[in-house]
Amino acid sequence: MNSKIFAAIFVPVVIVSLLITAVCCLRSWLGFSESYRLDVPLYQQHDGPDLEEYSHCVSQLRISDDVKKEVEILFQEKPKTLNLNEFCEVFPTTQYASFRKNVSDEEESCVICQEQFNELNNIRVLGCSHIFHSHCIDRWICRNSACCPLCKRSYSLPVGSCHVIAYIEKRLGPRYNLDSSITRKESAWLDVYPDLQEFADKKLIRYSSKAWSAALIFCLATKSKLRGIIIIREGHRRYDLMMSVEELQMEILRNELRMPSHEQRHR
Prior knowledge:
Layout: H1 2-30, H2 51-59, H3 65-76, E1 80-81, H4 84-90, E2 94-95, H5 96-102, E3 122-125, E4 131-133, H6 134-143, E5 156-157, H7 163-172, H8 182-192, H9 196-204, H10 210-218, H11 223-258, H12 261-265
Antiparallel strand pairs: 1-5, 2-3, 3-4
């Protein structure tokens, strides 16, 4: 009798648990469980970014003239001066003792604090080959600007190096990451990429069978919601691709900042 009561209680619980797990897995696989934030990459680039695909994504952008003008004005106000974190990334800290092993004609003192270097000092070697105590040049950058105190070489990135990402983020709006509505996010991406509507319609063909219709009902989803998810995911895929390409472009610019001045003139 006890075993029958146990089975009568346990078996339905197991069945319900399996059904809930199946629903959650299916919803996750279809993309309903993602938060879709721009600051959380949805797709990881295992290989280098596809530059041809990047060019295609850029060509499909629809940016209104007012947003385009506003973003261009924002970038034209001044070059993107490196902040302290970016400056430290471009010119990492090294020990003076290690620096001396590779250079025969080294400087003996830091011109900022006027103190001589010793082998245990942490230093930064700038692209112009001038060296400073890391804490001295860091304070200089915070109080002044990203330039060498000796030769005044500027360490700023060129104007307009990140226009495409700025266009998209401006068009999607500042509250995109906080919005949980699939409909509003779908509408925002369609404003940026009108071709996503046709893209989603083609993708939905694979879900037109009776089996998929039943599966969508089973996981409490509709085709209109699924269309929105397809549009949002493809928008994020394009955004992540552009981020990876622009990060690659930024790394090229950082490498140019690390180059000695005379090498830059010969490029």
